[in-house]
Each structure stands twice: as C-alpha cells, then as structure tokens.
Amino acid sequence: MTALWTALRNSDVVELNHLYQPLMPVWPTHPAFLLGENESYAGGDGNYNCQLVMGDHCGTHVDSPSHFIPDGKTIEQVDVRQLIGRGVLIDVRHVAARATFGVEEIGRWEREHGAIGEDDIVIFHTGWDAKWARRPDQGAFLSDWPGLSAEGAASLIAKGVNVFGTDALSLDAFGSETNPVHQLLLGNDKLIIENLANLARLPPCFTFIALPLRIEKGSASPVRAIALLTR
C-alpha cells in the first residue's frame, strides 16, 4: 500500500474548492460560468449530460507561468507533483484591506511552527473565502482583498517554495496595476492557486492535493483542491 493511499485512508478530507454553479463570482473581465442541460431523461435522451462554458481562471484554479510570462509554461506542461505535498497555512486575516503581508507574517509562522521547507505549498488565509457569494451579492468578494508583497514572495522562493495559494481572487493585493507577485512568481516558474475555500478549517500544516486539467495551451485550470488531516 502506497504512502499516499495510507494517508488517504487515515485522514479526514477538507474540501478546499468553491462550488462551480451559475452566477458564481469571476474576475470582472473573464467569462461567466454557464451550465446547460445537453441531454436529459425528461427530454427522452436516455441519459443526462451537461455543457460547460467557463474561463480557465474560473473558481478555484491554478495559474500557469504563461498567464503573465509570454514564454512561460502552459498548464499542460506543469509538473503536477508540485501540487501534492505539505501545505502550510499562514493566517493573515488581521491584515487591512488592500494592504500587503509577507516577511513579517512568514517569520511569525516559522517561529511558532518551524521552518518552511523546500517544496512546501504555502497558502495565505485572508478571510476572503467567507465573502464568496453569487451574483448580485458578489461585490465584497470581488474587491479590497490584501495580497502578498514582492518581498514576501522572494523570501519564499529562496526557501524553495514552488506553489503559493490564497482564498482571495488574486495573490496580488486589490488594485495593483503591475501585479508584482504574479510577475515574480510566474517569472520564476512557480504556480499560484486562487479562490481557495474553507481555510478556517485547516491547521497550520496538512497534506495538500490539487490537480489541474490537462488543457492544451491553457493559461490556468480549475482544480479540485483538498486537504488531508491526519486523524
């Protein structure tokens, strides 16, 4: 029995995805999520299947380097092993709207829980996952979130971190016009996961799994993200 299977059998699973459903919030310039009934029992088709329309950054998703880097890897070129590993949750819910967090919060976490190591998956809990709401009530989720600083991102790159996550719509703070964290992380072949959910249910460390779809030339992909908590 593999170590991963053993971990699955001996762990509780926490769903880290928001539900994909009509009227869900998306980045204002991105396509809406649409679900249509293609065949149905009621229609006499003998089966049920749906047609989906959405952008590759819809809902809980992972950005590939190509999202901001012209010659960066597209999503099907990403090594999915990077998205399986020890998750590190850093609570930044105290940070003011539109502000940045980073070196100070990372240092505080390490003093309390030990060093962040190479290949750890570092996730920042801003509290914005609790603001998630469908149209027309999506305004609070779509505005004012805090974000990671470029200095904080650089310090984690130096530690060997390859995957960075947030429960907000973007890892850069709301209103950023230059997106320095996206530029820095994706420019260094790192990955960014956005719109994570249920982070209040996580301890400081856990097992993280999030696998993207294999989309040719995709700039991102929806993922099914979970945390495994040892019983």
| Oligomeric state of the chains present here | single chain
The percent of residues in helical segments reads 10-25%
From the spread of the alpha carbons, the general shape counts as globular
The tally of domains stands at 1
In DSSP terms, counting alpha (H) and pi (I) runs of 4 or more, how many helices?
A: 4
CATH topology: Glucose Oxidase, domain 1
Q: What is the spatial order of strands in the main beta sheet?
A: 4-10-9-7-5-11-12
| Overall SS class | alpha/beta
The parts where pLDDT drops under 50 for at least 5 residues are none
Pfam families: Cyclase (PF04199)
InterPro entries: KFase/CYL (IPR007325), KFase_sf (IPR037175)
GO biological process, one term: L-tryptophan catabolic process to kynurenine
Protein name: Cyclase
Provide a descriptive summary of the structure in words.
The protein has 231 residues and is of the alpha/beta class. The chain has a single domain, classed as Putative cyclase (Glucose Oxidase, domain 1). It has four helices and twelve strands, in the order H-E-E-E-E-E-E-H-E-E-H-E-H-E-E-E. The protein has helices spanning 3-9, 103-113, 150-158, 180-187; strands at residues 11-15, 34-39, 49-53, 61-63, 84-91, 100-101, 121-125, 147-148, 163-166, 191-194, 205-212, 220-230. The strands form three sheets. A seven-stranded mixed beta barrel has the order 4-10-9-7-5-11-12. A two-stranded antiparallel ribbon has the order 2-3. A two-stranded parallel ribbon has the order 6-8. Helix 4 (180-187) links the parallel strand 9 (163-166) and strand 10. The longest helix has 11 residues, at 103-113. It is globular and about 60 Å long. The model has no long low-confidence stretch (mean pLDDT 96). GO terms for molecular function: arylformamidase activity. InterPro entries: KFase/CYL, KFase_sf. This is Cyclase.
